[in-house]
Write a structure and sequence with these properties.
Aldehyde Oxidoreductase, domain 4; Aldehyde Oxidoreductase, domain 3; 7-stranded mixed beta sheet; 25% strand; disordered N terminus
């Protein structure tokens, strides 16, 4: 890893060990590596029941009747619930639009939609009982694509829906539409020396987290319920759960349990309401754990997309204009589709200067599985298309594709198509230069100097396309190199009140100062539990910091998504720490100020468990200052506000921050068999400030690998009948260690003055550019256009 650092001054200059800028170890790391970490699926309670969900086998059907009598007669069954058993008039939920039924009523709108619930004393008993529920379905016409969704006689999937987007969409089967218009495209097109068009397609990707949906609901003596669950956003879950249960929010107490990955798939509810309903009905704890088949139906996926682009450029390599139309398949329910549309449209130009644009993005209602948040959130689909276009325009001009990108790269001060000025560093040209300058991997790595190392063989098949399948020994293998760069927003956008809350407590315990940090941040593997402790050590000058389990007994931290938690909840932790520090100094001045004038005149710091002056003089230990005092402060923190995009022009200050990553992919392709081996995915990324450098590199490598999966492996296959064809890891393929290439990372630190410590959100940007870089490399090796991901062997051989 190469690291370039522009030092960012700390607010108080603390040098306490384990502070920000150090690669401190994760407190949960050893437990996870050894298998001792307790995930939500590991929870247990005395006298616990098991919950199970009956799901629709159809994508679109009328429910004529539901007969639960035989299931209720089965020994060991405690409850069977349908829509008619829901306790309140609130029977739907949703992140933005409350259009998702808790249990289907009247009709089902997608394959796998929940229809009934069972609670029993054994999971197999619950499954067998569910199989005895008789549902009389009458299948309805399936809406599966844009043509069938917007046809004149198309079935309306949500007739009579009333939401704030309705006046702006031309058809009720459109969830949301966002145009962006700026400049004069027609005049710019007339000045172009070349005009290039392209149509692109992105398949439906699954988050493929390894820990399936699970949780434990425990009924409480006060009539409420305690829910222990793996999620991404405790308070958003709470906001949706409580009304359905008919309980005030303070009687639905939620605690985060061990999360086995998320990547956006846990933003929406899955088993939360179902477990609580069963627990309250039976008066017993109820545990729900999805198997892998259920998990594919139990959460949203990445929106599949069709994109049509046009770019013009002058002969000297300047982009004149861009037009695009992006159609996202949102599936049966809205989830976060409106926000995904906003991202796809506002970031559809990419990290380039384009003054004349005509953009339209929209999301459809269909009878396909619901789609919502996944790492990259609308920007991934756009990046695949605009980066393919960059290569096509460069080729039409006879220019080097990296040079063409650099010539049009945005920088600080660039005006986005939405009219927003980029007011922090945007080193797009620099990260492209850096990634291109990184050493190339050796050629023909499969050739062995010592054949005895492979039992007399002359090649290491593990380094070849096809790997251990031993399909080739290097015949017909061609190397290709490709580049891509992407732009991703950080944080919630478009006027959303994006804030977080942190509670920080400082006291003396065991004769030394100790701090406790309490937030509702969902730790899903991103490393917030490490960063929060680092911030507390930096700001409070103490070594011993405890992270309180995340729950709803503290204010909201928002979602662990949008690369926002280090920025927003980290900002809240720092803010609370600053307030604690000032209170500590107030106590110290009251106790010792009369004995030393520096208490009143110097800039005082907390460092190494002591109060020191800015000149390094020790005034007192924190133990002496605090004595029996406990300083305990909870506070909210917000970044600067954003605003909604205009629904006609798309203009507005929509995003609080942008992040940038560039990749160079090196691939080897067996052009006869259509097999691909990604040899290397080098990345250069600006992170503003690396609060934990090792964690930052891990995030970049993880995002890069997910982009690789989308490029060559991962797709949920849905037929025209709306049925999912491959809901298992047998048929839905994800990269393993054998598929993951070398991922060298060059980290830049160019501080954003608007952000805490100058940091920039990290986790999503590498997911964008890794996919088009791999495709560019495969195109270079094969000469094929390849306008769709994931690439399959038949796309490379023409068979």
């Amino acid at each position: 890893m190469g690291v370039t650092r522009t030092p960012t001054p700390l607010s108080q200059g603390s040098r306490t060990a384990g502070g920000i800028g150090e690669s401190t170890l994760r407190p949960d790391g050893t437990l996870k590596v050894t298998g001792e970490f307790a995930y939500s699926s590991d929870m247990w309670h005395e006298d616990m029941l098991w919950g199970y969900t009956l799901r629709s086998p159809h994508a679109h059907a009328e429910i004529r009747s539901v007969d639960t009598s035989e299931a209720l007669r089965q020994a060991g069954v405690y409850a069977v619930l349908t829509h008619d058993d829901l306790p309140t008039e609130v029977k739907n939920y949703g992140l933005e639009i409350q259009d998702t039924p808790v249990l289907a009523h009247g009709r089902v709108r997608h394959h796998g939609e929940p229809v009934a619930l069972v609670a029993a004393d054994h999971p197999e008993t619950a499954r067998r009982a569910a199989a005895k529920i008789k549902v009389d379905y009458a299948e309805l016409p399936v809406v599966h694509d844009e043509a069938s969704a917007l046809a004149e006689d198309a079935p309306l999937l949500h007739p009579g829906r009333d939401d704030h987007h309705a006046p702006h969409v031309p058809h009720p089967n459109i969830v949301h539409r966002q145009p962006i218009v700026r400049g004069d495209v027609e005049a710019a097109r007339a000045r172009a020396d070349v005009v290039v068009t392209g149509e692109y397609e992105v398949g439906m990707q699954d988050q493929a987290f390894l820990g399936p949906e699970s949780g434990l609901a425990v009924p409480a003596e006060d009539g409420g319920v305690d829910l222990y669950v793996a999620t991404q956003w405790l308070h958003a879950d709470l906001r949706q759960i409580a009304p359905v249960l008919g309980l005030p929010e303070d009687k639905v107490r939620m605690t985060l349990s061990g999360v086995g990955g998320a990547f956006g798939g846990r933003e929406d509810l899955s088993m939360q309401i179902h477990a609580c309903l069963l627990a309250l009905r039976t008066g017993k704890p109820v545990k729900v754990v999805y198997n892998r088949f259920e998990s594919f139906f139990g959460h949203v996926h990445r929106h599949p997309a069709k994109l049509r682009y046009e770019h013009g450029a002058t002969s000297d390599g300047r982009i004149t204009h861009m037009t695009c139309r992006i159609v996202l398949d949102g599936g049966a329910y809205a989830s976060s589709s409106p926000a995904v549309v906003g991202n796809a449209s506002s970031l559809s130009v990419g990290p380039y200067v384009v003054d004349h644009v005509d953009i339209e993005a929209l999301a459809l209602y269909t009878n396909n599985p619901p789609c919502g948040a996944m790492r990259g959130f609308g920007a991934v689909q756009a990046c695949f298309a605009y980066e393919a276009q960059m290569d096509k325009v460069a080729a039409a001009l006879g220019m080097d594709p990296v040079e063409f990108r650099q010539r049009n790269a945005m920088s600080q001060g660039t005006i986005m198509p939405t009219g927003q000025e980029v007011d922090s560093p945007a080193p797009v040209a620099e990260i492209l230069r850096r990634v291109k300058a990184m050493p190339m991997p050796p050629e023909r790595q499969w050739e062995l100097a010592d054949g005895a190392a492979m039992g007399g063989a002359t090649v290491d098949v593990r380094a070849l396309p096809g790997g251990l399948s031993n399909t080739t020994h290097g015949e017909g293998v061609v190397r290709g190199v490709g580049y891509a760069v992407g732009i991703k927003n950080v944080g919630f956008s478009e006027g959303f009140d994006d804030y977080s809350t942190a509670r920080v407590r400082l006291e003396v315990a065991g004769g030394k100062p100790v701090a406790m940090v309490h937030t509702a941040m969902a730790e899903v593997g991103q490393g917030g539990v490490t960063v929060h402790a680092q911030i507390a050590r930096t700001e409070l000058g103490v070594t011993d910091v405890t992270i309180h389990p995340a729950d709803t007994q503290v204010g909201s931290a928002g979602s662990t998504s949008a690369s926002r938690q280090t920025y927003v909840t980290g900002g809240a932790v720092r803010n609370a720490c600053e307030m604690v520090r000032e209170k500590v100094l107030e106590i110290g001045r009251a106790r010792f100020g009369t004995y030393h004038p520096a208490w009143a005149t110097a800039e005082l710091l907390l460092e190494g468990g002591k109060v020191v002056t800015d000149g390094g003089e020790v005034l007192a230990s924190l133990v002496d200052v605090l004595q029996d005092e406990v300083v305990d402060i909870e506070s909210e923190w917000r970044h600067r506000p954003t605003e909604a995009f205009d629904l006609r022009t798309g203009q507005g200050f929509g995003h609080v921050q942008y992040s940038f990553a560039a990749h160079r992919a090196v691939v080897e392709v067996d052009t006869e068999l259509g097999l691909v081996k990604v040899v290397e995915l080098a990345c250069a990324q600006d992170v503003g400030k690396a609060l934990n450098p090792q964690s930052v590199v891990g995030q970049i490598q993880g995002g890069t690998t997910q982009g690789l999966g989308l490029a060559v492996m991962e797709e949920i296959l849905v037929g025209e009948d709306g049925r999912v064809r491959n809901p298992s890891f047998t048929d839905y393929l994800i990269p393993t260690i054998l598929d993951t290439p070398t991922i060298p990372v060059d980290v830049l630190e160019m501080a954003d003055d608007h952000a805490p410590y100058g940091l920039r959100g990290v986790g999503e940007a590498p997911t964008l550019s890794s996919t088009p870089a791999v495709l560019a490399a495969i195109r270079a090796a094969t000469g094929r256009e390849l306008a769709r991901v994931p690439v399959r062997p038949e796309h490379l051989t023409g068979t």
